[in-house]
Structure formats: structure tokens, C-alpha cells
Design a protein that fits this description.
By secondary structure, this protein is an alpha+beta fold. The protein is built from one helix and two strands. It binds zinc ion (ZN).
């Protein structure tokens, strides 16, 4: 989300995992009611851009 009422898919740089972190591949994720309310402006004052979609459905560990 880069602006209110604007939700789109974008490519982002993937950082290398640090110590104690793993990289996962998210094959699919959902958008929940809170995400939808965020897009519609229910939570003013958020720092944008914002990555929504924390309802991951399928994860695969691909690196340490
Ligand atoms: Zn949620």
C-alpha cells in the first residue's frame, strides 16, 4: 500500500537473512479485514509504503 485506497502488487529487494533469521518463500497470502480497513483509511497516520498480507498460507524455507 503506497497511498490510501491504493493496494497493488510490487517487486521489492529481498535482504539477506541475518544471524538467527531464515528466508522463506510465501507462495500465497490473504488480505484480512484489518488489511482491508487499513487500505480504506481506518488507521490514519501510518508510515507508507506499507506491506500488507500477513495471512500466509504456504511457506517454504529457502535459506538460513
Ligand atoms: Zn489480519
Amino acid at each position: 500500500m503506497s497511498a490510501p485506497d491504493s493496494l497493488r502488487v510490487v517487486e521489492r529487494t529481498i535482504p539477506e537473512p541475518g544471524p538467527g533469521q531464515v528466508r522463506i518463500r510465501v507462495e500465497a497470502c490473504g488480505i484480512c479485514h484489518t488489511d482491508a480497513a487499513t487500505v480504506m483509511g481506518a488507521y490514519p497516520g501510518l508510515t507508507l509504503p506499507l506491506v500488507l498480507g500477513h495471512e500466509e498460507l504456504w511457506l517454504k524455507r529457502i535459506a538460513n
